[in-house]
Structure formats: C-alpha cells, structure tokens
Amino acid sequence: VRTEPADPIPPTVAWADGAVRLVDQRRLPGTLAFVDCRSVSDVVAAIRNLTVRGAPALGATGAFGVALAAAAGADEHEVTAAAASLRTARPTAVNLAWGVDEVVRAWRAGGTDAAIARAQAIAAADVAANRALGTHGAGLLPPQASVLTHCNAGALACVGYGTALGVIRAAHEGGRVVTVWVDETRPVLQGARLTAWELDRLGIPFRVVVDAVAGSLFAAGSVDAVVVGADRIAANGDVANKIGTYSLAVLARAHAVPFYVAAPTTTVDASITSGAEIPIEVRDGAEVAGAEGARTIPAGARVHNPAFDVTPARLVTALITERGVLHHPDASGIAVLLATA
Amino acid sequence: VRTEPADPIPPTVAWADGAVRLVDQRRLPGTLAFVDCRSVSDVVAAIRNLTVRGAPALGATGAFGVALAAAAGADEHEVTAAAASLRTARPTAVNLAWGVDEVVRAWRAGGTDAAIARAQAIAAADVAANRALGTHGAGLLPPQASVLTHCNAGALACVGYGTALGVIRAAHEGGRVVTVWVDETRPVLQGARLTAWELDRLGIPFRVVVDAVAGSLFAAGSVDAVVVGADRIAANGDVANKIGTYSLAVLARAHAVPFYVAAPTTTVDASITSGAEIPIEVRDGAEVAGAEGARTIPAGARVHNPAFDVTPARLVTALITERGVLHHPDASGIAVLLATA
Questions:
Q1: pTM to 2 decimals?
Q2: pLDDT in tens, B267-289
Q3: What percentage of chain A's residues is helix, strand, coil (to nearest 5)?
Q4: Residue B186 to residue A30, Cβ atoms within 8 A
Q5: Counting CB atoms within 10 angstroms of each CB, which of A39, A278, B51, B337 has the fewest?
Q6: B185-203 tens-digit pLDDT
Q7: What residues of chain A, 259 to 288, have a C-beta less than 8 Å from chain B?
Q8: Alpha carbon distance B70, B64 (integer Å)
Q9: Which of B193, B207, B298 sits opposite A196 (nearest CB)?
C-alpha cells in the first residue's frame, strides 16, 4: 500500500481547539513556531504584524477570524464589527475581504457551525486550488527550467502547497528539473526567509540573490521563466503583487522571457476595472531603516516603503489559475475565466 | 571677504603623518571614524573588507598604498610586489590598477618623494575632476529634478565631492531644486548608509527606497533622470557598476527616462573592447545571508552574490566626465573623449 508522504510544510492557517493556529512567519527560517489567536483582535494583530501574510493565507485567516467571533457567541453587531476590523487589517490583498465576507454570509444563513464549516471549506479549497493550478502551470515550464520568483508565494502564503511555488513544486514532482532563483525581497525578506525555507524542505535546488541581481541573470540567459503570485488582480488583468514585481515584468519582457502570475481566481477583484484602482499599502519606514542600534540609515532620514506595485496585464504572459491557464490576460479573458465553473 | 564654507564631508582618502588615512565606511552612518593604514597589507585589507570602496577612491588608495611602500624604503622587488597585491585586492574597478601603476612609474622615475607627490596629485585631481564633471552634468538636469541614484557614487566613493552625487551636488549648488531617490543597495547598503549620510550632511532632500521600488517610481513618473557612477567603462562605452545598475538602465529606457553615467575618464579601460571582458567580482554569500544569530536564510542555503553588472552602452543616454558630456557613448565617441586633453 502506497501512502502519500507527509507534507514537509505544516498548514499555514488552521482551526485548532477553538483557536486560529498560525505558523509564526516572523520567526522563520530559524524557528518553526505557531501562534494561537483566541480573539478577533489577536487575528487582526497577527495580520498587521506579518505573523501571517500572503493573499490566499489572509483569505483563510480572515475566514477563521469571523468563525472565531461566531464561536464566541457574537451577535449581528459584533460579527459585523469583527468583519470590518478583519477586512481592513491590510488593504491590498482582496482575498482577505473575500474570506471574511464568505463566512459572514454562512453565519447569517446557518449560525456558528456553518461559519466554522465554511472557513474550513475555504482552507481546504485553497490547497486543492493550488494543487490544480500547480499542475496547470507545470506544463508551461520546459523540462529543465531555471525559474525566478519574488517574495513568497508558497505554502506559507496560502493554507498549503503554494501558488507560484505550487507551480514549481508540481513541476518538480512531475519529474521536471527545476532550479529556482529566489529574490530575497527586501525589506521583509520573504524570499530569503520563507521561500528558501520551503524549497529547502522540499529538496528543490535554489539560490538566493539580492533583488538587484535579477537583471544580470536575464542578461546572462539564466532565467527561463518568472513565476510570481498576486495580491489582487483587476478585471482587466492588471496584477498587484509584492514591490519589485513590476521591475521583473519589465526585465522579462525586455529579454523575451515569459512572465507568469499564479493565483487562485479568488484573487481576482472583478469590481475593479484596472490596477490603478488597487489600494497600495505603504508601510512604516522602520522596516527599511532597521531598529535603533542597528539603524542602516541616518537618523531622521525619510523612507518611502510601498509594499506592492502594479504590473499591467500587457506584461503578463499568462495567468495560471485552478481553472486553467489564461494566456495574455485581458478584460474579456478574465470575464470568461470567472464565468467558468 | 567671502570664504568657501568647509566641506561637510572629510576626504575619503588622505596622506597623513606617513600613513594612509581612510574614512571607515563600514561604520557609517552611525559613526564617522578614520583608519590609518601604515603598511601595504593594511591597505590591501582595507580595500578587501570595504573600509574604502568606490572606483575613484580605490584609485587614490592604491596610489597612496604604493607611496607607503616607497616611504618605507622598499626596493624594486618590494615595490613590484606591493603593486601586485594592491592591484588585485579587488578585480572590477579599473581605477585601482591605474592609480597603482601611476605611482610605481613616478617612483621609478623620481624615488619616494616623486611617488608621494604623484599620489597626492592623483587625490587632488580626483576632486577637481568631480567638480568639473558635476558642473557638466548639472546642466543636463531640469530646473526641478527628481533623480534616482544607486549605490554610493559620492564623495565617499572618491577622494571628495563625488561623481553621480557630484552632479546632484553641483545642480543643488547651482540653484536647481534636486530631490533624490536613494536605492538602499543591498547587500552592503552603500545607498542607505553612505549616500543618505552624504545627502543629509549636504542638506539635499532625499528619500531612501529598497532597490525593488524603482520600477514603481518610473511607472508613476516620479523619476526625471537616473545618475549613477561606474567601476569600469569599456572602450565601446559598456559600463560595469554596482549590481542592479543594469536593471535601472532597462527600466529607464522602458519609461523614456535619461540614464546618465558620471565618471572620470580614468574609469575608462581602453584595453577592453566590450563589457563582456570586464571581470565581475562575486563576493561571499555571507554578505547576503547575515551573520550567525541574525541569519535570514536557512543554514546551508546557497547564495549568488555578484557585486557588479554590465550595462551596455546603448542604454546609456550620456557619459558625464571631467572633459565634458559624451552623448550616446560608443567606441568612436570614447576614442575622441580619451584623445581630448
């Protein structure tokens, strides 16, 4: 009897003993530890302080956050307030608001059990979607592929398996020889800390580079494809993702290298016509400047610290989703994708 | 009587009491401290460990290094050995070998006094060249200019005044309103630590960004010009400079923003026909991974850490030198530039 090997990466978000259990991503790669959130304000704090991050993971976390309020016996007013605080904990990833709204709807229809069940279904669907989009995306890579990725769009950015890393993982599992260039992704280093940790656990070969190395890799012909995740995709196919993604898209186009965005369809915000309408979070400059005692910037110097940028659809070779691959995404293609069951 | 105000930035490299006195750039921006090198091996170590860096500064440091050997009474064999160890302390900046060779030649012709005098003349000529190229380059900027720069091509990269920052400084002194986007420049953070420190001292407004922000600034129309330095320029105008420079050149071209390289003509290596022949230093991955206790990358993970990249001449809008501005640099333009007294 052949059994599936245990996933070497635990679920990023889970419902455990009436709490929302999160991998503490601030402590990786040094320590794999968990944080149990027992109140909505715990969940909001965990989202804000980056204990949990990544658009699909935020969707599930928001969903479980509402379930937590429901399980605590919240009334309509309290659930609405919890939903509002969760929805606005961070602004850019649309999945967060989506996950919150889904569970509020389930709670109104069926109460606490329905809310918990819906949150758990969202978490399970996330992993299934990522496995599906991984399989779709793996087919786009050549048999021996050198892939560049940015930030962390892995299991840790989702409930499990990953989006961009899901594509890489599926290619690896399918026998393709994939090596990965991992952008360290300043200022929070999600690439160096999280993507490298995942690839190391999965036995997929990789090398970490500072973000500024990418250009020289393209120039040397050392990148066969770029695969990244997304925080929000507008109805016209424009993509908000981690700051630096747009630069990679421009470089990929200049070197005729395909640029792929891997994301579940829940990342599409059909209410927004273009990327210009996506709210871009600007975070505290202290993330860049370092803490007192380890400051790398003169005291008092100003920092501009946007967390995301927008890549126009025209630079996206294909959007890889659980429903299939949308080549050259545009408004009509996105509409067809969303209409597909 | 009007006197020149004292320069708020001390000389990066100077001859002091028979020693080579260097600003310790590893300790900035927190502490302005100096290191006195009293032997050639001290100088080689200071070059290797980045106490001093920047192509023109390395030229002067190499020059003073040979003067140090001469002053210690070295014979032909010892001077030749000192020159060899200085020339190869770091591989990419051509100014280092140039400065060393100049002083060896002076020593052979005129002994110790001639060696010291030649090194001091190189240092003085560096500041004069930077003031001249600064004036030439300032005229290229609009009256209100938002300039992006990368790494540190300031006074600290030279003996004084700076190349790319010399252009910005001359524009500022000439009454133009210049604001600067400062790339932090991972992994060693020469932008965040050194360029920000210089601009702060000079009272020129600036904001620090992580390197991956540049694309979004171009997309928003927030950059009027890119001005960077150079570590070596080939005879065809290809430019080796800090890793990440090439990405900025591609982004600038994609957004129709001028991309300027500011460097003294001593940075041109006429013996090299194209950038493909420039040796690119690959440094220890520990610079990227962090030290034990503050490691940001899983133990054992591999890092690729090239310190420089090559920007092809076709992406350079103009080369700004002490002899004037060479628009659209190519082999014939570089040849004319080098023939100009």
A1: 0.96
A2: 999 999 999 999 999 999 999 98
A3: 45, 20, 40
A4: no
A5: A39
A6: 999 999 999 999 999 999 9
A7: 285, 288
A8: 10
A9: B298
